[in-house]
Structures are given as structure tokens and as C-alpha cells.
Amino acid sequence: MSMPETETVVRQLTLGDAIREALAEEMRRDSRVLILGEDIAEAGTVFKVLTGLVEEFGPDRVLDTPISEPGFTGIAVGAAMTGLRPVVDIMFGDFIGLTMDQMVNQAAKIHYMSGGKWKVPMVMRTTMGATRRSAAQHSQSLHAWFCHVPGLKVVLPSTPYDAKGLMKSAIRDENPVAFFEDKMMYKLKGPVPEEDYTIPLGAADVKREGDDITIVATSSMVQVALGAAGRLAERGIGAEVVDPRTLWPLDETTILESVRKTSRAIVMDEGYGRYGVMAEIASVIAEQAFFDLEAPVKRIGAMHVPIPFSPPLEDATVPTEETVCEAAEAMCG
Amino acid sequence: MSMPETETVVRQLTLGDAIREALAEEMRRDSRVLILGEDIAEAGTVFKVLTGLVEEFGPDRVLDTPISEPGFTGIAVGAAMTGLRPVVDIMFGDFIGLTMDQMVNQAAKIHYMSGGKWKVPMVMRTTMGATRRSAAQHSQSLHAWFCHVPGLKVVLPSTPYDAKGLMKSAIRDENPVAFFEDKMMYKLKGPVPEEDYTIPLGAADVKREGDDITIVATSSMVQVALGAAGRLAERGIGAEVVDPRTLWPLDETTILESVRKTSRAIVMDEGYGRYGVMAEIASVIAEQAFFDLEAPVKRIGAMHVPIPFSPPLEDATVPTEETVCEAAEAMCG
Amino acid sequence: MTQAAPTRTDAALDRWLRMYRRMLMIRRFEEEANDLYTRALMPGLAHLYIGEEAVAVGVCEALAPDDYITSTHRGHGHCLAKGAELDRMFAELLGKRAGYCKGKGGSMHIADPDTGNLGANAIVGGSAGIATGAAFSALRLGTGQVAVCFFGDGALGQGLVYEVMNMAALWKLPVVYVCENNLYNEYTHNSETLAGDIMTRGPAFGVPGERVDGQDARAVHSAARGQVARARAGEGPSFLLCDTYRFMGHHVGDVSREYYRSKDEESEWKTHRDPIRLLGEALIAEQAADPAGLDAIDAEVSADVARAVEFAKNAPYPSVDEVDDDVYA
Amino acid sequence: MTQAAPTRTDAALDRWLRMYRRMLMIRRFEEEANDLYTRALMPGLAHLYIGEEAVAVGVCEALAPDDYITSTHRGHGHCLAKGAELDRMFAELLGKRAGYCKGKGGSMHIADPDTGNLGANAIVGGSAGIATGAAFSALRLGTGQVAVCFFGDGALGQGLVYEVMNMAALWKLPVVYVCENNLYNEYTHNSETLAGDIMTRGPAFGVPGERVDGQDARAVHSAARGQVARARAGEGPSFLLCDTYRFMGHHVGDVSREYYRSKDEESEWKTHRDPIRLLGEALIAEQAADPAGLDAIDAEVSADVARAVEFAKNAPYPSVDEVDDDVYA
Ligand SMILES: Cc1ncc(C[n+]2csc(CCOP(=O)(O)OP(=O)(O)O)c2C)c(N)n1
Ligand SMILES: Cc1ncc(C[n+]2csc(CCOP(=O)(O)OP(=O)(O)O)c2C)c(N)n1
Ligand SMILES: [Mg+2]
Ligand SMILES: [Mg+2]
Fold first, then answer.
1. What integer pLDDT is reported at residue A1 of this predicted model?
2. Is residue A7 part of a domain?
3. Quick one: which of A270, B57, B163, D25 could link to B157 by a disulfide (CB 3.0–4.6 Å)?
4. pLDDT at A228 (0 to 100)
5. Cα–Cα distance between D49 and D59 in angstroms, integer?
């Protein structure tokens, strides 16, 4: 666990508040940092994550935009090249489709295409995660698309502590970084130190130790994995939960070390089940820890269907602690 | 091989001509089929794949559009819902980023979101493939993005014969289908029967049989795999080349049967190396044929870098027969 | 209202009363939806159309049953104006199997081929291509249908809208772009999001425009009629800007609104610019209706709404095995 | 030319000759590029700027060295007009290590911070956001810089362009959108792709526009100067439509063009509307230059181009290990 053990009384903050704090601290530290997005100023975003920022930093640094995701993403690319460090807020991760050209053909490639001459230090913050009864166009977890693109970095925090430290690193990074926040976790509380700290992009975190099986999980699936690990412990199975925290760069070393120790692995992610993030992580494990594995790597993700509105249907599409426990027991049995 | 053996003298057509023939035949068969795209009418596309179609079918069925990929993709979605069967031509696959919202949030989900009431029978034809010295924004193979999205089908032909049969199936399908054509293969020749035939979406094809190792390869990588298989045969290694032909639906059965027989697998695809198509196929194999595998599944794809312009650099990014042979020998050794 | 009262014929009278009834049906439907949310009986959120009823009803009254519409996240009014049934609407809002989309779509995705409804859409501006494509089909197939694309002032921020207008003009497609200008994009006033004169945006892409008081159902209707007739006659697309206002929050959960708009502004619109009251009062003033008659309509509509809500509450959820049906046709 | 001759001062004279020289440099550069292609010495393709030189040169002459530009697939002219060196340009076209992008970008991606060149761009319309963002930085950081976005008439099809114009107007950004209207999008005449009056498109988004003869370098320059001054003064964005023509194919390989435009049309432009010849003749007529002086410029420029091409041919390719450098900063 990377939370400092020495800290005796640490504040509890929600994940949403931790993100706001990281942004506010970075905006105080560096006047080049600013935020662009829809309904982010007085409204503080629809999730209220940015409440108060416009009051502190003014409308020149917390800008309400028109509903023009391709346009203001493009503006951020240009601003990042020319001396600012923009953070772009895309309200729902489902809307990143509108920004793919600007993110992939421009932001991701400009450094390379210019032979290293221009840089694009920007952050795209957006959301992911289902079960909010928001239906097929407001519930997706589409981060796999960005992971596939060289030139981008991709961050998925799973705790308030990580969220603050990773957001600071993302803002200070010289590259375009996509930062995915699970909207169902905004109210999740956890310890967050007041001081300035960063978590490097590319360092996984072992969220729980265990000897029998490794569960590599991202974002809110970390919470599901931890819940499952607790239940598995009662049944005598030691599950180690590894959170990559950044999907690119990917900390293969930590993942592989864990799997080499446990010899079994489950990979969890809330993206669509097929051709997603889980496939890459499972492949890395199956390629590089092949001779250590006792059982095939198991993938547990969202069902490969558009996300339905009706509550019983939607609930059926996301992994639960029970699904994970069953799979782990079968693999360890 | 699914090419009918009985056919004695079969015409040789290029892959580009096979696609044009499929489109022309379908347009004759069904007056609802039409094509929209940039420079497709008199110019017949920049690759000359559609030459002659506007002369036969007129400008009402072969429409030159403004440079508005999001817009005309959206128009195709609406047209498909209301009685037409549009084919959309996206000149370079690199531009699909502009269409992701319309393809993913609209085309792919409308059938599901409407509880099965509306259908979107459209085809998006686009290109893929590097080594044309077209640099980072005109060389990508981005089909993995569409593969990740439930509601879409994804087709990658590797021969003229397959191209014709698959295109016809794509047009007749009731769902949105993305059809990726490797621009370096347009001039590739092969036998193509004159008659009307279709190849079902979801049926892989064993392009060459072998007992020692399976190479699952897509699009132009099939040609590389076949070349490598020829060389490997000389070195006493029997490589079986499996072409999934459609990445969704994915014919897991044929792939797994082959791997269970050979017990070794290489997966090849021209997309970026990480978080791509290869990861999914490798995961399917590693999950379902785990106990049959003698060695970890090996992925051989494009380097995970933006595609450079300079010829020696660009050439270094794509897999070659030699790379495949070396990997196969190491695995079988 | 400075506008002269429309000419009264029997057909016109029927139409006005039909419009009045339909607007009231939308109002009562939305009030009920709000109530379901408040009592935690509705999953998720909903964006209510209260205050804007004259737009959907005025426009749809100009359409034939098989004409097409596309709708938005604020779609209940469009769906009902185009002929949707109350019971299946409520059932969809509650995620029930009997809903228009078998519960899979919910409030933001109601769609219905039988009434020409190509679907509500939760992507702002996302349906502009679909409506334009439907008009493209109508023209190519020679069916004589017209497509109406409803969207908010916020959707004017999406470049897609201009791309498809340009093609609609080039290809003379029978589509009418109806912009519901309710002054806000969620919690942001559109003075912060719109530059230039928006009435020139259509013409800049070859689409002639007209602006109308969106609280006057008959004015909306007559403008829409002209544009629909133009489209049907093969003269191409048009743009209709309707000035209107949503009386409630952006969605049912948006109850404290003072930080983005004043109570005075709200009460000004609610008191003086309620489209249902305006039509009712005008009809009474013109002696085209009497208060008792209008009350009777309200009683009928309210009873229909109450019955429909009961139906939906009692209807079963889809079975969990249906979750992966309908992914592919 | 009906336009009155510009007023002649010493500074103006210097400027006209500098512009003449720069246009000729672009012309000779492009001729050489075509030759390299024809002799199979250049990898890939290139989109030549021949015929359009007055636009890039007229506009860039109105810019300070640290002002920004974004360019297009047809970018050589913009890069050179903004101050790029011939040798590193050719080296980039040949994929050599000494090129502006170490050979990684090629013809369509030349970029150079030292001359404020944010990059050529192979996505039509794709740079509109970047230019607008650079203007945003300039305003926020108070640097006084201006950004110019060059794009073709084809880019008017991309919705992104209108999205960013709207924001540029709302936020009064110092950006000038320069549209090079050469009548064609690749092989399609823009009468097939543009509806409405394109001069109203800027204003519809709050961006005032001006139209100018793109073959008259001095006219382009004076229009650009006004718009750049306006931007620098904090008065916001503008749109400049330059009517021009590409004399060659869409790219170097587009040699049989009769199916989309007539030889007559081409020869009309080449004969009567060549921007270099027009400026040269005007300078001579105004006795601001003499034929021998202009010939001397040509000789110098041609020698520079020849030297630069030699440099590039002899320069080494990057080493293969560099392929994965520069992916991340
Ligand atoms: C592409 C996209 N961006 C953002 C949103 C989030 N969003 C939902 S409604 C809305 C405001 C829409 O304003 P307007 O179009 O005026 O419609 P109104 O709600 O006023 O009816 C926004 C920003 C979205 N659904 N889609
Ligand atoms: C988004 C996108 N769509 C299509 C293309 C292919 N393409 C390259 S140049 C071009 C025509 C551009 O026309 P215009 O903007 O007028 O520039 P011109 O070539 O006339 O200078 C097209 C369609 C592209 N590069 N990017
Ligand atoms: Mg609005
Ligand atoms: Mg042009």
C-alpha cells in the first residue's frame, strides 16, 4: 500500500473532493493550469466535482464552454502547445467519441510527428461507470480506445488518495493524459493527506496482499475485488489485489511479480468485455508468466452489450463480488 | 480453403476490383443500396476502387459528399433506419475518429436502445495499413476500436475472393458493419468467381494447413503469415494460417481447433501493438486452449508508435516474414 | 400577444382543441414523472418538457402520422406530440418490459416506428444526422415523408449540425430543423455559448430560417406548416427557431436553480408565458372554447395519465435473460 | 486589376520585393519537389502550392516572427512563408534526419517552433482547434501574439471549424481564419460541397469576414494586416476568404485531371492569374522593379533551392533505433 503509514490522523475525503483538491493545488502552484468544459464554472460540473473553483480562480481559468467537445478539445491541444496546461472536462466518458480525432490524430501524435519539437501537456478528465440508470449513451467505460493509441497516457484512480496524487502527476506530465473517473465512486471516502504529493504514472499498487490468486482490477472494480478478497479470505483463499492505476504506461513488473507468486490471475475492468483492457493485461500475464500459471487467466468485465436502462438488466451487466468469488474458488479449487 | 475446388478456370481480379464488383452486383440486385463519400463519383475514390459506379448507377446512388465525415455517417445512420442500405466510404481509416460518436453512440446502439424496433443496416468501408509513406495520420489500422463496441460487426478481408463474398454479406446484413480494406492490398490479385456468392460473417478460414504452429492473422498480415509459412515449411515447420475474416463476430471455434491441434500460436494484426485486436485473440486462445498450449501465445503487430514518415523508420514498424519465422522457430525449437 | 387571432374554421377549431388537449397531456405526464421521481419510484433522471409544450405540439400538428421526428434528452413532449401512448411511455420510464423499448432505453431513448419516432437521443445534437438521413430516404424512395429534427439551443454548439444542414441544402432534403431555444444549456445561459446572430446560421449553410414565439402554439404551428409544406414540395430544408423556456429544472433533480437563473425570471415565464394557459385563454377570448370545456379536457387527460401510471407501476420488469437480446438484428 | 496601385514608400517597396522573392522561393521549391517525385527520389506524395503563393506570403508578411500559424496537407508554402529554411524542408520531404521533424513527419507534418509554425496537418480542418488554442494562450499569457489558421475551402465541410470560430468570437481570441478557396476539394468542385453564401459563415458565428483576390499578393497582405491588427488589438477573430487556384494536381501524382476540371480553366488561371507574374508585372509597371532585378532574384532563389536539394539528397536517414524516440516527451 502506498498510503504513508506514518500519517496518524489523515483526513477522510471523497474521491470527488480529492480530485478538486488536486486541481485547486495545481492551479495555485502553476498559473498556466486552467480548466475548460461544459457547466464547470458556477455549476461546478454536473457531479459537483469542481464546485468552488471558479470562485477562487475566476472565469478566465475555469471556463464554461459551448457544447462543442471536438472544438474545445482542439483548443486545449493548441493551448497546451503554446504555454498553457489545460485540463479539459468531458462530462460523460461516452462523449469521447466526439474527441477521438483531436485526441488521437492531433494530441497523441504532435510530439512524434514534429520530431520531438512540440509538446502537448494537457489532461482530459472524463467519467466512466454504469449502474446510474443512465442508459446506453451515458454509462460507458471507453478507456480502452485511448489505451490503444501510442502518445497518450491513461489513468484510472480507484481511491481518493490515488486520485489526488495521480491527478497532480497528470497535470505535471508533458504529454496528453486521459484521466477516467468512475462517477459511482465520487462519494467514496478515504484518507487523503493535506500535503502535496504525487504518484508516478506507471506504478501499480498492491491494494491487498495474498498468496493464492492475483486479481488485477481497475477503477471501481478495485473495490469489487477488495470486497471479493475479503469474502475469499473467510473461505481460506488469499487474494492479492493489484491496481495498475495507469493503463499506459502499464506497470507490468508489479503485475507479473504478483502472478508469479500466486500462479493464478483474474483481470477485472468495467469496459465492454471484448477487445478491451482486460485482454491486454491478460495477454501480458499469459505471455510473460506462462510457465508460472496453474490455470488460464480469467477475465471478468462488463457484459458485451450496450448498457440497458432497466435496473435489473443494467445490474446484470456489471461484475459483482459474487461473480469474482465464484471464479476464484473455481480456479483455486 | 473455401474457394470452390470445382471451379476450373476462375478469373483473377485484384482486391480493389473484387470490392467494386461486389458493390456493383449488390447495387443491381437491390435499388436501396447506395454509396456516400468524398471523391467517390467521377474520381471513383482516391484508390480508384469505385471507378465506373457513378456511370452505371448515377449520382443519386454514388454521392460525392462534402468533407464531413461525422455528418454523412450520421445521414447514413438515419437513411439505414428508414429503408435504404447505405455504404459509407471513409477515405482513410485514420479518419474514423471523426465518426466514433455516430458509429458507436448511434449506429451500434439504436437497435438495442429501441428494444429491437429500429435497425441500422449500413456498411462503413474504410482503409487501413501502413508502408505507403503517408505518415502518422494516413497509415493507421484502427479497427480495434470498433471491435470493442457491441452492436457493430467488423470485417477484414485478406484476399480478393473473401473481399467479394464478405462485402456482399456486409451489405445484406441488418446491422452496422465496419469493413476495413488494406490499401496496400488493392492491387493484390486472386481468383474471384463471377457468380453471386457470399461468405458468412463469423466464419474463419484456414488459409494454409499445418501441424506445428497456428498463425492467426488478419488482413494483409495473412499474406505475411503465408509467406512465413512457406519459409517455415522449408525449415521443417508446418504452420497453419487461420484468418478470422471477421473480428466480430469472432469464429473462436476454428481458431481454437487449430491451436488445440498445433499447441502453439502466433497472433498477427497490423494495428498498434498494445490494447489491440491481438490481445483479444491471444486471450481467447490462452483462456480456452490453456491446457493444450506448449508455449505462450506470441503477439506480432505493428510497433506501438505513431507511424513515421521516413521509409527506414516506417518499415521498422510493421511485421515481416522474417520476424514471424524467427518467432515461430523459437517457439517450436 | 400582438399577433392577430388565427382565422377560425371548423377544421382550425378542431385542431386548436386537439393541440390544447395534447399540450395538457404532456404537462400532466411530466408532472406525474416528476412525482414518480420525487417518490423514488422512477430509476435515474428525466428532463421535463414543462413550459415548452407548444413547440412539440405546434410542430407535430403539422406532420402526417408517417412523417419522421428525432428527439432529444428532453424528449417526452416530442414523443407524445407525435402520438405515443401514455402507458407505454410511463412503462419505459420505469424500465418495464411493456415500455416502448422493453425497458432497455428509458426516458432518453424512447423510439417508436409506428409513430415515425426515430428516437430520443442523449447525445446533444446527435440526432441531426439521423433526421437528415431519414429525409434523404424519403426523397430517394419518393415517399413524400418529411423529417423534423428537434434540438435545443445547446445543440447549436455541435459542428455536426452544420455539416448536415449543408448537405440537406445541397441535396434539397425534406427536413425541418426545429431549435428549441429555452435560453439554457443545462446550467449555463446561452449568452455564454452562442456568438453571432443565430438566425443567420441556417442561411449560412443554405437553410432558410424563421423565428417564432415558442409559447404560442398556433404561431408555431403555422410556421411549421409552411416549412413542412416547403419540404414536401421538394424545396429543401428549413430552420425554425422557437423561443421558449423550461419551467422546471434541467432534470428532475435540479431543484436549487438560483445560482444560474433567478426566481423572478422563472415566475415571469410561468405566470405570463405558459403556453397552455395562453392558448386556453385565447380560445376562451375568441369564444372558441369555454372554461368548463377546457376543464373537462383536463379531467379526461388527467384520468388517462393516472390510468397509464398505474399500468406502468404494475407492469413487470424484463427478465434478466433478455439483457443480451437485441444487440444484433 | 482594377484595384489602384498601393501607395509606395520605402518600407512598402522593401516589402513588395520581399514578398516577390518569397513567392518565387515557394514556386521553385515546389517545382523541385515535383521533380523529385517524378524522378522517384521522394517517398510518398506531396500537395503542391503552386498558384496559391500570394495567399501564404501576403498573410505571413503581416505576421511577426513569433506569431503562430497552422497549416494543411498543402503546407510547404505556409511553412516557407513563415520563415522555414529550404534545406531542412527538403530534408523532411525526403525523410532525412536533418529535416524539420527528423524525418518523422514528412511533407504533411512540417512543424517548427522557431518560426511559430504549429504544424502542417493531414486532417482536413484538423488544425482549426490548434490555431484557436494558440490564440487562447496568447491572450491568456498576454504575449500579444496572433495565430493564423490556414485551411482550404474543403475544410468548410468540417463542423469543428464552426465550433472553434464560435468560441473564438465568444472569447475574443486573436486568431485569423484564412480560407484558401481554390475551388476544389481534391477532385470535387466545391459547387457540389458548399451550400449557402460562404461569406456569411464567419458572421453567423460572430466572426466578421472579408473576401479578397488571392492572386494579388498585395491585396491579400493589406486585408490580412487589417485583420491581424484587429486581433492584436483585442477585437477578436476574423475570417479571410482568398480566391485562388492550384495550378497543378491535387498531389504530385494527379496528372490526368480532365475528368474534374478543364484544361481551359487551368490555362486561363496559369496564363492570366499567376500571382508571381502579376506582382512582377505590376512592380515593373509601377517602376518599382525592373526585369533584370527580378531575374536576379530568380537566379538567387533558384541557386538556393538547388543547394538545399543537394543538401537533402546527401543527408542521412535517421537510424532505425530512433523509431520509438519522441513518442512521449
Ligand atoms: C455531446 C453531449 N455533450 C454534453 C451532454 C450533456 N448534456 C445533456 S443536456 C445538455 C444541455 C443541452 O442543452 P440544450 O441543447 O439547450 O437542451 P435543453 O436541455 O435546454 O432542452 C448537456 C450539456 C450531452 N448529453 N451530449
Ligand atoms: C478529415 C479528412 N477527410 C478527408 C481527407 C482527405 N483529403 C485530403 S486533402 C482533401 C481535400 C481538401 O480540400 P481543401 O480543404 O479545399 O484543400 P486543397 O487540397 O484544395 O488545398 C481531402 C478530402 C483528409 N485528409 N482529412
Ligand atoms: Mg436549452
Ligand atoms: Mg480546395
1. 45
2. no
3. B163
4. 98
5. 15
Shared domain check, A31 and A164 = yes
Cell 444560474, residue located:
C260
C166 and D201 in contact (C-beta within 8 Å)? no
Residue A103 is classified by DSSP as I
pLDDT mean by block of 10 residues, chain C; 329 residues: 72 96 98 98 98 99 98 98 98 98 98 98 98 98 98 98 98 98 98 97 98 98 98 98 98 97 98 98 97 98 98 98 98
With an 8 Å Cβ cutoff, are B290 and A287 in contact? no
| Beta carbon pairs, B and C, within 8 Å | 151
CA distance B286 to chain D (A): 29
Angle between helices D159-170 and D128-141 in degrees, nearest 10: 10
- The range of the structural domain enclosing residue C189 comes to 50-86+107-290
Which residue in the block uniquely carries the three cell numbers 483538491? A21
Give the number of domains in chain B.
Answer: 2
Using CB atoms, which residue from D104, D129, D134 is nearest to A71? D129
Which sequence positions of B are flagged as catalytic? 138
**D194 in contact with B at a CB cutoff of 8 Å?**
yes
Is D275 a member of any domain? yes
ipTM for the assembly: 0.98
Q: What share of chain A is helix, strand, coil (3-state, %, to 5)?
A: 40, 20, 40
CA distance C213 to C230: 20
Q: What share of chain B has pLDDT > 70, as a percent?
A: 98
List the chains bordering chain B where 3 or more Cβ pairs fall under 8 Å: A, C, D
pTM for this entry: 0.98
Residues of chain A with pLDDT under 50: 1
Chain B residues in contact with D106 by the CB 8 A cut-off are: 133, 135, 309-310
pLDDT mean over B199-206 = 98
Number of domains in chain D: 1
Q: Which of B34, B106, B113 lies closest to C130 in CB terms?
A: B106
Do B221 and B131 sit in the same domain of this protein?
no
If you count residue pairs, one on A and one on C, with CB atoms under 8 Å apart, how many are there?
Answer: 122
Neighbours of chain A (3+ CB pairs under 8 A): B, C, D
The CATH code of the domain that includes C277 is 3.40.50.970
Within 8 A of C126 by CB-CB distance, chain B residues are: 74, 101-102, 105-106
Q: Any idea what DSSP says for residue D117?
A: B
CB contact, 8 Å: D131 with chain A? yes
Q: Check if the beta carbon of residue B265 is closer than 8 Å to that of residue B285.
A: yes
Task: Round to whole Å and give the CA distance between D294 and D273.
Answer: 18
